[in-house]
Amino acid sequence: MFRRKEEVYSIKEFMARKEEVVELTEQEKKVFFESGILIPLAVAPFLKVKAALATTAVPVTAAAASGAMYDKMLHAFDPLIILVQALAYPVAMVVVLGGALFIMIGNKEKGFSMMQGAGLGYVLVQMTPLVLNILVEAMRAI
């Protein structure tokens, strides 16, 4: 079996370590140059300087600025909503299985109420983006 080499550092040593710079051989440099990989890298700094030197003012209305901010705020919670939706199914399945166990041991009321709550909760979590979009459109109309 292969053993992985492990190195132990203190935090101070880890933060103070230097990265190794790998030099390309002449053959590798020739391949990069001939393939055209270096040309965009060589031109990129000039494009940034040209954009930085542009001093023309672009008029922006307050409505456009608030619209951009509104769009950013609208999509700010998307990762959280996606995470909750992804976790809803496994959690619902665990609760449904727990409800089935309660039914098996004779506590039917508790088991069915757990299953019903899990199903309703899953549906509501999946419908959350729909409800949020309705609220957003209602606020936009005001």
Describe the structure.
The protein is mainly alpha-helical. The chain has 2 domains: about 10-55, no CATH class; about 60-140. About 75% of the residues lie in helices and about 0% in strands. It contains 6 helices and no strands. α5 packs antiparallel against α6 (about 110-140). The protein is flat. The N and C termini lie far apart (about 70 Å). Mean pLDDT is about 75; it is low at about 50-55.
Structural class: mainly alpha
Radius of gyration (CA) equals 29 Å
Quaternary structure annotation: single chain
Largest sheet: none
What is the overall number of helices? 6
Strand content: under 5%
Give a quick precis of the structure.
By secondary structure, the protein is mainly alpha-helical. It has 6 helices and no strands. The N and C termini lie far apart (68 Å).
Descriptive keywords:
single chain, 142 residues, mainly alpha, 6 helices
Summarize the helices and strands and which ones pair or pack.
Elements: H1 11-16, H2 26-35, H3 38-53, H4 62-74, H5 78-104, H6 108-141
Helix pairs in contact: 5-6
